[in-house]
Structure formats: structure tokens, C-alpha cells
């Protein structure tokens, strides 16, 4: 069987709890996938920062570059200043490994309770292609006269023709491969005129090569409204890094909650390993209690399997999750481990 080098970054809070279940399911499906996963676990996150002051050292980054794919739990902890691990570890990995596509499916599985009235699984099946390396996330900006009454904080949005084009092109490819062939640009070009205009012109130019894809545009504020009032209108969405962050938490909420939302930080050119992770964070409020839902991580494992070319195994994991979700109402409260066990059992059985 083909060998895949898998880097595992459990991280903080519920990260290690949900990653353990993701690996359990991977272990259950791997034997029939034709792949052998060689795992290396990386001790990164709050504990390491407290011990050494390191977030993502160059040496570890270099090791990660030599891996085929990465599974990450979550990072961030109340004992660490906000942004230290988020920027120094998670965003550093996304930027250095050039994860310019942040893929976030928003799909309602049968039997899952949505807060939207009268909505069925046919009504919500979209995928958000979130730009992953630019926008307001670059860290460009600064602060003047900190802690004075005249303090000024700037945080710029950086958008390059190169970066916008490649993510829009990827989104067109995804849209062209889906039955509905619809792509919606979500931005705020009525206010963010420079960046919005670059996205709009690029959409038009790249779209000329995809006449089969229907294109439309929504301001992000209106898009949030339609997520709730008319989710059927969405198929593929392409959007800026920050807008994509915000709308995918909303997307998670309308399809059963953040515990179900999977994602992939993808380097489509395969110039560096891609990194799969649940959309949620380290959830300090429930960490260590066995309450976290590992389903988002397990679905991220399915995306990982697709990425490494194990489509059959990916479908098996998705089907196991879907079957488990369909019966959840009858299960009552289950722990993180119980959910992982149940899905792993379906995958192997
Ligand atoms: P969060 O996603 O950690 O938690 C938001 C709410 O959702 C909490 O009530 C939490 O208990 C719940 N929740 C999250 N995941 C769940 C799961 N699997 N099952 C059940 N409930 C779940 O977001 P937050 O509270 O805004 O952030 C907490 C920390 O995580 C912060 O340090 C933040 O920076 C970090 N964070 C990291 C990532 C990441 O690593 N990708 C993503 C988001 C936030
Ligand atoms: C996410 C998170 C991250 C983001 C943070 C923790 C940097 O919210 O993965 O959605 O904003 O991308
Ligand atoms: Mn987020």
C-alpha cells in the first residue's frame, strides 16, 4: 500500500479530544483504503508556548513541509494572549504553506436539526471557497501611541492580483464540477472599493473561460441574510479571508452547529502539504469534559482522504457520519469518545 506521511497537530482545548476521534476513524478506514498513514504528532500550542515561548518554530515548519498532509485540532487558550497562537501557529502555517484555498462545505445532512424553518437537506448544499492567505489577515498595519487617548490602530486588507485570481479560478473549477454550476462572489464592493473592484474585475475575466458557470454577486451583509432566509440560492461561494471566516460560522449554525463543520486549508498546486481541521476553535468552555462533538474533525478527515486520492475511503467516512447523524436524535447525549467509536464502527463494519 502507498505510504502517506501524516502530521498531526492536536493543539489546545478540545483539539486533542476531537483529533483522537478523527484518527480513530482514519485508523478504521485506512486498511481498506490502500494507504498506510505514517503519523508524526507535533507538540504545538499553549503548553509549548508556556514552556518555551515558541509557537511554530522554523525547524518544525521545515519538518511539516516534508509531510504529505496535516490534521489539526484547534489552537488558542485563555492563558495565552489572544492572537499569539492564532497568528503565530495557525495563520503562520496557512501562510507559509500557501494554503490559498480554505474550503468549507456547508451541507445539511438528513436528520440533522437546523434552526431554519421548513428547510430540508435539498435546500442547503453549498461550498465556501474562502481565500486563505490575504485580505485583512496578513498582519499589515500597526498601532501608534498605544494606550494614549490618541491611539490609532490600522489593520490593512492586502489583496494581490495573483492571490485573487488563483482563488477565483479554483472556485470556478469547483463550480464547474457541481451539478448547479453557480458561483456567487461575496464581498463588500460598495465600501471596500479597491479590494472589491479587484475581486469583481478578476471574477469577470476568469469567468469568461467558464461560460457554463452562472455568476452572481452579493454584498456580505446581504449574504448573511440570505444564509438564513434563502440558503437554496447558494451553490459555490468565493470570498475574502475575513468574510469567509464569518459566514462559515453562520453556515455551520444553519446545518446543525459548529461541531459538524469541516474544512481544508488547501494548497492546490501541491507545493506544500494541505492542512485539514474542524472550523471550530479550542472551545475552552467545554474542554476536558468529553462533551466536544468530534464529527467536524471526522468530516475533515474525509476531506483529507479525498485530498490524498482515497476517494472511496472518503465516501465511506462521509456515509458513516451521515448514518450516525440520521440516528442521533435517538441516541441521547453521547461523549466525544462514544461518537468517535460509533462512527469508527460503521466505517469498519
Ligand atoms: P470556538 O469554536 O472554540 O467555540 C465557540 C462555541 O462553540 C463554544 O461555546 C464551544 O463550546 C462550542 N463548540 C466549538 N466546537 C465544538 C464542538 N466540537 N462540539 C461542541 N461544541 C463546540 O470559538 P471561540 O470560543 O470563539 O474561540 C475559542 C478559542 O479558539 C480562541 O482562542 C480562538 O482564537 C480559538 N479558535 C481557533 C480556531 C482554530 O484553531 N482553527 C478556530 C476558531 C477559534
Ligand atoms: C477559523 C478561525 C481562525 C480564522 C482564527 C483562529 C485565526 O476562526 O479557522 O475559522 O480566523 O481563520
Ligand atoms: Mn473562524
What would you say this structure looks like, in words?
The chain is α/β, with parallel strands linked by helices. It folds into 2 domains: 1-100 and 262-349, Isopropylmalate Dehydrogenase (3-Layer(aba) Sandwich); 114-255, Isopropylmalate Dehydrogenase. It contains 11 helices and 12 strands. It has helices spanning 15-29, 46-52, 58-65, 84-96, 161-176, 193-207, 220-229, 241-254, 295-307, 311-327, 336-348; strands at 2-11, 35-41, 69-74, 101-107, 125-131, 141-144, 152-155, 182-187, 214-219, 236-239, 262-266, 274-278. The strands form 2 sheets. It has a 10-stranded mixed β-sheet with strand order 2-1-3-12-11-4-5-10-8-9, sandwiched between helices. Strands 6-7 form a two-stranded antiparallel ribbon. Strand 11 and strand 12 (274-278) form a beta hairpin. Helix 1 crosses helix 9 (295-307), helix 1 (15-29) packs parallel to helix 11 and helix 5 (161-176) crosses helix 6 (193-207). The radius of gyration is 20 Å and the shape is globular. The model has no long low-confidence stretch (mean pLDDT 98). Bound molecules: nicotinamide-adenine-dinucleotide, 3-isopropylmalic acid and manganese (II) ion (MN). Residues 245, 249 line the site of manganese (II) ion.
Amino acid at each position: 500500500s502507498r505510504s502517506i506521511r501524516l502530521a498531526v497537530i492536536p493543539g489546545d482545548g478540545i483539539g486533542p479530544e476531537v483529533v483522537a476521534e478523527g484518527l480513530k476513524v482514519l485508523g478504521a478506514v485506512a486498511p481498506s483504503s490502500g494507504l498506510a498513514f505514517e503519523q508524526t504528532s507535533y507538540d504545538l500550542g499553549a503548553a509549548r508556548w508556556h514552556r518555551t515561548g515558541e509557537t511554530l518554530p522554523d525547524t518544525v515548519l521545515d519538518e511539516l513541509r516534508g509531510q504529505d498532509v496535516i490534521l489539526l485540532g484547534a489552537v488558542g487558550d485563555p492563558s495565552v494572549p489572544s492572537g499569539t497562537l492564532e497568528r503565530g501557529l495557525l495563520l503562520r502555517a496557512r501562510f507559509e504553506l500557501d494554503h490559498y484555498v480554505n474550503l468549507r462545505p456547508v451541507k445539511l445532512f438528513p436528520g440533522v436539526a437546523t434552526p431554519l424553518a421548513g428547510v430540508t437537506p435539498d435546500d442547503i448544499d453549498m461550498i465556501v471557497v474562502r481565500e486563505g492567505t490575504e485580505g485583512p489577515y496578513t498582519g499589515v498595519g500597526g498601532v501608534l501611541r498605544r494606550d494614549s487617548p490618541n491611539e490609532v490602530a490600522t489593520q490593512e486588507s492586502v489583496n494581490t492580483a495573483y492571490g485573487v485570481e488563483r482563488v477565483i479560478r479554483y472556485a470556478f473549477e469547483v463550480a464547474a464540477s457541481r451539478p448547479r454550476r453557480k458561483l456567487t462572489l461575496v464581498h463588500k464592493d460598495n465600501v471596500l472599493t479597491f479590494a472589491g473592484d479587484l475581486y469583481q474585475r478578476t471574477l469577470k475575466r476568469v469567468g469568461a473561460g467558464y461560460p457554463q458557470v452562472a455568476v452572481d454577486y452579493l454584498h456580505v451583509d446581504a449574504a448573511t441574510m440570505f444564509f438564513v432566509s434563502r440558503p437554496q440560492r447558494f451553490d459555490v461561494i468565493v470570498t475574502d479571508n475575513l468574510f469567509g471566516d464569518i459566514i462559515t460560522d453562520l453556515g455551520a449554525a444553519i446545518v446543525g452547529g459548529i461541531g459538524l463543520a469541516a474544512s481544508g486549508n488547501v494548497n492546490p498546486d501541491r507545493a506544500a502539504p494541505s492542512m485539514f481541521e474542524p472550523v471550530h476553535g479550542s472551545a475552552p468552555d467545554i474542554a476536558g469534559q468529553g462533551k466536544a462533538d468530534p464529527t467536524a474533525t471526522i468530516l475533515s478527515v474525509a476531506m483529507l482522504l479525498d485530498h490524498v486520492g482515497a476517494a472511496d475511503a472518503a465516501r465511506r467516512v462521509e456515509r458513516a457520519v451521515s448514518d450516525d447523524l440520521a440516528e442521533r436524535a435517538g441516541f441521547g447525549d453521547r461523549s466525544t469518545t462514544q461518537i468517535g467509536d460509533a462512527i469508527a464502527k460503521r466505517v469498519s463494519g
